[in-house]
């Protein structure tokens, strides 16, 4: 086999997959996504009804309420109907985009989700961009310098931080960097999204100041996964013949890594990026709760404490739909990166 043939084999062509097999492949993935979403719809309805507590009594705040008033509340929210009828009503409305009315806020669930979504995207979206770029960069360098001191340090640190619970790390950062320890003063707010009373550029700086610790927590916990996946995928590619051929042609190691090895090792990383992108929309419940961030995660925790069934169900469905959508998009993008995936 000539050097040219090997190099060409290593550079996976980006030709479009054949239309018919790709359409069949895409239809299968979309069908699987629809089944998964239906399963989430059913699971979410019954799962959260196992939560102990009476939402109607919780809404009264412990005030003395007559049996007639409790019955009126249950009629208002449809809790007096048989479970099967509640389920069919819930499914019918959900399929039309109506996720019900929140018990505690007395507003449409979809409106509450829309209100909190930008705050979640600001927090988790910023963290997503940082830990994805950091993980891919460090994972590439660690694989290319396998066995070196930097490889051992980066891999060990990634494994350690990835195993740390995010809420524990968040609390630790609050103690050290917000409250202060010994002579070290508190440098950052303990929680929330803003201090209040600021406008214009001062408001932007205030939000950025509140954003640092929760973003740092997410980046520290999440970048390790991207690093490890990128490193593993690149190590699998490094023994390939086409890389040896590229080096024999006189190409620099940096050029071989950037043009040949990294593009061919990106499929597992692409999957992880899409999954993390779905989680970005879903938010991170524990981190938002620890830092009192007014996003979807904090709203979900607040709804669970009632329990506010329509809001909990709506958020659960929204979170799951985001992850399912991103996984499906990753599956549909695969054949565009490697046509062998979509072949029948």
Which helices and strands occur, and which strands form pairs?
Elements (H helix, E strand, L loop, with lengths): L2 H8 L8 H29 L7 H5 L7 H10 L6 H13 L13 H36 L4 H14 L3 H14 E2 L2 E2 L14 H39 L2 H8 L4 H12 L1 H17 L2 H6 L5 H9 L4 H29 L7
Antiparallel strand pairs: 1-2
What are its keywords?
344 residues; mainly alpha; two-stranded antiparallel sheet; 15 helices; 1% strand
Structure description:
The chain is mainly alpha-helical and 344 residues long. The chain has helices at residues 3-10, 19-47, 55-59, 67-76, 83-95, 109-144, 149-162, 166-179, 200-238, 241-248, 253-264, 266-282, 285-290, 296-304, 309-337, and strands at residues 180-181, 184-185. A hairpin with a 2-residue loop joins strand 1 and strand 2. Helix 6 (109-144) crosses helix 9 (200-238), helix 10 runs antiparallel to helix 11 (253-264) and helix 14 (296-304) runs antiparallel to helix 15. The longest helix has 39 residues, at 200-238.
Short description:
The chain has 15 helices and 2 strands. It is an all-alpha fold and about 350 residues long. It has a two-stranded antiparallel ribbon.
